[in-house]
Amino acid sequence: MPDKHDKKHIVVIGAGIVGVSTAIWLRRAGCEVTLIDRSKPGLGTSFGNAGVLASCSVVPVTTPGLMFKGPKFLLDPNFPLFLRWSYLPKLAPWLLRYLSHATDKDTRRIADGLTPIVSDSIEQHRSLVEDGPAARYVKTSDYSFAYTDRAAFEDDAYVWELRKVAGFEPELIEGEAVREKEPAFGPAVGLLAVMRDHGYVTNPGGYVAALAETLEGMGGKLVTAEVTDFELTGGEISAVLTNNGRFECDKAVLSTGVWSKELAGKLGLKVPLESERGYHIVFKNPSFNLKAPVMVAAGKFVATPMDMGLRCAGVVEFGGIEAGPSKAPVKLLKKKVKETFPDLTYASEEEWLGHRPAPSDSLPLIGEIKNTGVFSAFGHHHIGLTGGPKTGRLIAGLINGERPNLDLSAYDPNRF
Ligand SMILES: Cc1cc2nc3c(=O)[nH]c(=O)nc-3n(C[C@H](O)[C@H](O)[C@H](O)COP(=O)(O)OP(=O)(O)OC[C@H]3O[C@@H](n4cnc5c(N)ncnc54)[C@H](O)[C@@H]3O)c2cc1C
């Protein structure tokens, strides 16, 4: 902990779940903290995710065989993988690197790397919120995976084996017992693989906003500004430059999610980072709500009971961060929701497109960028809500010179 007469001033850039978590842990460690975002906290990707604290989500999308299955999936209108073809030339270099990790060796290495970031998610969220205004959003619950039948579950054996290695084994429920547990399911669901001791957030955007409020209550400063560059003195950060002035600092944290590539580039770091675009639909005033979040394997979407209704979120689409939403992914998502919950009726629906920050090797970047005094905290793919608080705690520890009891080399931002 820094001496109180020698407080470090840290600028944290980006007020998503990763940035607010980092800012709170830094403030708790006695640093002066300024959190800068170009809009209000929690309006980036952290706004619209499925809300699951998915401790068991240690397996990346790039599992063995994807190289061959991927093109087939893309051409299958019933599979929730999409590509905006005009974006392919830009995507190609990243895509080749991404697919090169779809081997058994790399999938296991990535799973080993993700495990410490996600596996204690509930404890990390509880430590983060304490009894502040964000606490009411965090629920402990089961997290189930819904399959058509046992054969479909067994098709996922590789993934379940890796989850088992990470310490997560499901309880299986089959046949009519499925509907006893969750009456909303139609006949398309014949097996549930239930993970105990998981959790979810009942309004991810509201949660991040409440965490930002917590930070302010602790004396942290919130600034609305677009960060444009860094000022280095002798190779080390001395100020963060924005369209709303210059912010002097001792260290900085780059936690701008999918938008981090350009800013990292200003420090000479080339990161193979893409958007894995995803969508949600909120069904407002639904005829039922679920008891706990469910990942529907056949549709690759998660249905979560939230404050604002039933949120169904998922789909992977490649197409960059500039293009607006596409029609086909939302249409397929609706179709899959209908197949899963045939009796669902609702008053209205709201659609959203978001950008999962996806480094080509599926591991987040957590550590110091070169020796600049700027720390990266981005690239959390599908697990940013789950792993944001742990990441923030690790970064705060690094900035304050603590030695983490975890080997961080897998997350080294300089690894590419
Ligand atoms: C459909 C979908 C479902 C998902 N479901 C889950 C789930 O159930 N569980 C889970 O763990 N994860 C889930 N995720 C992933 C998760 O949402 C992300 O990994 C996470 O939100 C990333 O958080 P972040 O703080 O890194 O980025 P963000 O939340 O995107 O925050 C980045 C912030 O940086 C700001 N910013 C950007 N550039 C600048 C700049 N130049 N100057 C100032 N500010 C800037 C932005 O305004 C933004 O507020 C899902 C994602 C999607 C798309």
What does this structure look like?
- It is a single chain.
- By secondary structure, this protein is of the alpha/beta class.
- The protein has a domain at 61-102 and 141-197 and 273-359: D-Amino Acid Oxidase, Chain A, domain 2 (2-Layer Sandwich), CATH 3.30.9.
- It has 13 helices and 19 strands.
- It has helices spanning 17-28, 45-48, 66-75, 88-100, 104-118, 121-129, 150-155, 157-165, 176-181, 204-217, 260-265, 327-340, 384-399, and strands at 9-13, 32-37, 52-53, 81-83, 138-147, 171-174, 191-201, 221-224, 227-233, 236-242, 245-248, 251-254, 273-284, 294-296, 301-306, 309-318, 348-359, 365-368, 374-378.
- The strands form 3 sheets. Strands 3, 4, 5, 6, 7, 13, 14, 15, 16 and 17 form a 10-stranded mixed sheet that branches. It has a 6-stranded mixed sheet with strand order 8-2-1-12-19-18.
- The longest helix is centred in the C-terminal third of the chain and has 16 residues, at 384-399.
- The radius of gyration is 21 Å and the shape is globular.
- The two termini are 32 Å apart.
- Flavin-adenine dinucleotide is lined by residues 13-19, 36-39, 43-46, 49-52, 54, 226-227, 255-257, 259, 278-280, 302, 313-314, 354, 356-357, 378, 380, 382-386, 388.
- The site of flavin-adenine dinucleotide has 43 residues, from α1, β2, α2, β13 and β16.
State the helix count: 13
Kindly estimate the percentage of residues that lie in beta strands according to DSSP.
Answer: 25-35%
Ligands bound to this protein structure: flavin-adenine dinucleotide
CATH architecture of the domain at 61-102 and 141-197 and 273-359: 2-Layer Sandwich
- Main beta sheet: strand number and arrangement? 10 strands, mixed
Q: Briefly, what CATH class of the domain at 61-102 and 141-197 and 273-359?
A: Alpha Beta
Which parts are unreliable, with pLDDT below 50 for 5 consecutive residues or more? 1-5
Number of strands: 19
Rg for CA atoms = 21 Å
Shape: globular
